[in-house]
UniProtKB/TrEMBL annotation:
Database matches in InterPro entries: HAD-like_sf (IPR036412), HAD-SF_hydro_IIA (IPR006357), HAD_sf (IPR023214)
Protein name: HAD-IIA family hydrolase
SUPFAM superfamilies for the chain: HAD-like
Tagged with keyword Hydrolase: yes
Recorded GO MF terms: hydrolase activity
NCBIfam families tied to this protein: HAD-SF-IIA
Gene3D superfamilies cross-referenced by the UniProt entry: HAD superfamily/HAD-like
Pfam families attached to this UniProt entry: Hydrolase_6, Hydrolase_like
Superkingdom of origin: Bacteria
N-terminal signal peptide: none
Entry keyword annotation includes Kinase: no
Recorded coiled-coil stretches: none
Key words, A-Z: Hydrolase
Length: 255
């Protein structure tokens, strides 16, 4: 039995369009007795939204099979004292609250600032984050993606908001919870898949998140070329995947 960890955007689908062969490949792996989990850095949808989306594409899964960066951010904060000031969209607020994280909109009582992708990010939110920082709050982000791939091209993601905060503070933020964090990979292999890392495969389209996270944690990494990264980019990068496939459709069980 192996564990297959799939990135979503650019790997399983692009926007609402499944990548050709995605459902067939994933359902076959499950039928062969392998474990499958889905991992996304995108903070603007709930885990349940992804379950619904995947099910509609003919990919069977439940909420336990989908881990997003909001959930890992909550895992990071659980057990730590103090409230969090949150900049992000409704799903981030909801999923943090559901995991017991206390949220405040008062920068002076925040122990943490949590930053996620926010289509309504503005100067006022930036100022609040900065005020919390000045009061000693630690700044953490859901994910370090600069952009998100869509059918129309790439659009700015969470790193753009991180850049704004770092521009104000002059310092690198304290922690990023989503891919490529060790916390996220360990949670998936130990708590979800319950398999040794070397029996797992991380399949994704982005070198600096999906592939790096696999490589740094002893998980086999598989780059697919249906998203952000082109074959020529691999030659330019220090981050080398264990395997390169044109598409998820080319993935076959190694057993
Ligand atoms: Mg991706």
């Amino acid at each position: 039995m192996k564990g297959y960890i799939f990135d979503l955007d650019g790997t399983v689908y692009l926007d609402d369009e499944p990548i050709d062969g995605a459902a067939k490949t994933i359902n076959e792996l499950k039928a062969q007795g392998h474990k499958v989990v889905f991992l996304t850095n995108k903070s603007i949808a709930r885990r349940s939204d992804y379950v619904e989306k995947l099910n509609k594409m003919g990919i069977e899964c439940t909420i336990e099979d989908v881990i997003n960066s909001n959930f890992i951010t909550a895992k990071f904060l659980q057990g730590k004292p103090g409230k969090a000031l949150v900049i992000g969209e409704k799903p981030l607020f909801e999923e943090l609250t559901e995991e017991g994280i206390q949220i405040t909109n008062n920068p002076r009582e925040a122990y943490y600032v949590v930053i996620g992708w926010d289509h309504e990010f503005n100067y006022e939110k930036l100022s609040q984050a900065y005020e919390a920082y000045q009061n000693g709050a630690k700044i953490i982000a859901t994910n370090p993606d600069r952009t998100c791939p869509t059918k129309e091209g790439e659009i700015p993601d969470c790193e753009a908001m991180i850049g704004a905060i770092e521009g104000a503070t002059g310092k690198t933020i304290d922690y990023i919870a989503g891919k490529p964090s060790r916390l996220m990979m360990q949670y998936v292999t130990e708590e979800v898949l319950k398999l040794p890392p070397n029996q797992c495969y991380m399949i994704g389209d982005r070198l600096e998140t999906d592939i790096l996270m696999g490589n740094e944690n002893g998980v086999n990494s598989v780059l697919v070329l249906t998203g952000i990264t082109k074959r020529a980019d691999v030659a330019q990068s220090e981050i080398k995947p264990t395997y390169i496939l044109n598409s998820i459709a080319d993935l076959k069980s190694s057993d």
